[in-house]
Amino acid sequence: MKNFEDRLAIITGAGAGMGRELAVQLSAAGANLALCDVHADALAETVALCDERPRVSTHIADVSDEGQLETVRDEMLAAHETDHAHLLFNNAGIAGGGSFVAGGRESWERTFDVCWKGVYLGCRVFLPLLIAADEGHVVNTSSINGFWGSLGPHVPHTSYVAAKFAVKGFTEALITDLRIHAPHVAVSLVMPGHIGTEIARNSVLLHGSEVDARVSERANEFRNSAPTTAAEAADIILDGVRRNRWRILVGEDAHPLDELVRADPEMAYEPVFVRRMHDAGVFRNVVAE
Fold it and tell me: How many Cβ atoms sit within 10 Å of the Cβ of residue 210?
């Protein structure tokens, strides 16, 4: 799908970060948008940044709830007066649930449900709309933590990692499934590295915690220290869609880390691996020992 003009794109997590930037860039390319997020005020800010020419609808939903996504589907079809869509960006995600052993179950499952079920249910609910179109493209967001299940040898990171590995496997399996049953629909797997987004702040809110001064400072540090901005990430993703690439690594840190893991997977979770990362200029803030 090299041209997005007059195509209908569904974007989850459109209230901030990569979802917002995807909306802005797609609207500039002439696409119509159905934007989904849990925060109405954030969606309104995204809409204000979009081009005024395409048709834009906004929808409030928790992507881990199938019933809410079905409501979004019905609302967007009515708003756009159509029975199909062309692009689906399962982009919503949060962090949390670090330790399976010592952490709380509620936080663990909340993170897993948003990051995995949000993609799975997004495809269950919206993929039939893409199959009904003349062409379609599904874009599922995993992470570098979908091929490297760690934040370093001293930091448990189980829920987010488990979800992102699930997204990776599911999306790769969809390549063959769609080729057999819906060859006019393509699929891409997005694996971002450290991107300058509000995921740290938004994750705290979605887990029901307060964003105090300390949390705000850490969230700002996460966003501002990223080697890749959300706008740059969106540009890379859309370029990958235009090129029909199924595997889209995002960020200058993602590529060397991918190479390091592939070169020596047995050592990927040892302190020596982090030293190799540092030597390659990747994630210098991760402590090896």
Answer: 7
Positions in the chain whose pLDDT score sits under 50: 200-201, 203-205, 211-213, 215-216, 219, 222
Q: How far is CA 258 from CA 18, 148, 261, 288, in A?
A: 21, 8, 5, 18
269 belongs to the catalytic site: no
CA–CA gap between residue 119 and residue 56 (Å, rounded):
22
Residue 59 structure tokens: 């929808």
Distance separating alpha carbons of residues 134 and 26, to the nearest angstrom: 19
Superfamily classification of domain 8-256: NAD(P)-binding Rossmann-like Domain (3.40.50.720)
Q: Residues near 220 by Cβ (< 8 Å), separated by ≥ 6?
A: none
Tell me 59's DSSP state: E
User: How far is the CA of 38 from the CAs of 43, 90, 100, 249, in angstroms?
Assistant: 9, 14, 26, 27
Nearest one of 72, 74, 77 to 58, comparing CA atoms? 72
**Cα distances (angstroms) measured from residue 183 to each of 3, 132, 133, 169, 193:** 18, 12, 12, 19, 30
Domain segments of the chain as ranges: 8-256
Catalytic entry in 4, 147, 148, 160: 160
pLDDT in tens, 37-93: 999 999 999 999 998 888 999 999 999 999 999 999 999 999 999 999 999 999 999
Tokens of 29: 């390319």
pTM attached to this predicted model? 0.91
| Strand ranges inside the chain, DSSP E | 8-12, 32-37, 56-60, 87-90, 136-141, 185-192, 195-196, 228-229, 247-250
- Asked if residues 215 and 198 have their Cβ atoms less than 8 Å apart, the reply is no
* Tokens of residue 278, six digits: 């540092």
